[in-house]
Amino acid sequence: MINGKTRLAGVMGWPVSHSLSPVIHNAWFRQTGINGVYVPFPVKPEELEQAVRGMAAMGVAGVNLTIPHKEWVLPLCDEVDEAAKRIGAVNTVLFKEGKMHGFNTDAYGFWQNLEERARFVRKHVALVLGAGGAARAVVAALDAAGFGTIYVMNRTFAKAEQFKTLSPKVVPLEWNANPAQMKEVDLLVNTTSLGMKGEASLEIDLSPLPSYAVVTDIVYTPLITPLLAQAQERGFQVVDGLGMLLYQAQKAFHIWFGQEPVVDDALRQKVLEHLLC
Ligand code: NAP
Fold it and tell me: Whose CA is closest to 256, among 38, 76, 109?
């Protein structure tokens, strides 16, 4: 029930109507018994500062930021956590005691999902496809997890090269459907938008991968992308991208409300139902 004690949180994006975050966080308010509500806020890029300052003034607990605001909100924050500084993007803001605290929970979300859903991940060599915003969080997570070599292969090679400043373990690669490095890869991660509903498929030959390799895609529409379907067919462990969304949200909820909500099959199912709508 919404009353005078209801806490408010939400997600700012442009556009934002596709966001699944309201489904996730509102399920957690019910689960934890916290009197709160989570809503989408369509905020134009040129009105971002005005919007976040207004939220702080209104006593909003916190907000998530999605495309295109993640990078632009960072300089507006009074304090920024290490992950956000490193990744160069803030996806969660906590409004507390007149200050704006910025966090990045995407790297946590990516790795937590992998830990939960893969049976075993050998942590020597990773191949990351793509060098966009989400790839930065993925590479930060792989670096923290202890991978020795992180290949970053991107259509625009210059962007892959920039990832060397993110981690000394990064080795940039030119875009190639048959990379020679494939036979040494323990973990392959797609962070490009290829394979997403309405986009072209990712053309890559997975046959040289070692039998123990894990293949994961952070694209989750569809849940089983053509890349994951090929990996499944070849008998590799596969991890879909929905869990990254759920776990980054879990950490944000904890930052705002001090409680760690549960990520379980019922929540996955609920979110999947919304995905299919
Ligand atoms: P982004 O910053 O726009 O990066 C897009 C990446 O895809 C770039 O590396 C781009 O290469 C590459 N790309 C696009 N079209 C391509 C093509 N035709 N051929 C080869 N490469 C192509 O986007 P992002 O924010 O990183 O998001 C990427 C994907 O991850 C999206 O589908 C998004 O929905 C998903 N995502 C999922 C989660 C989750 O929680 N599971 C979180 C964040 C993002 P260039 O650099 O050459 O343009």
Answer: 38
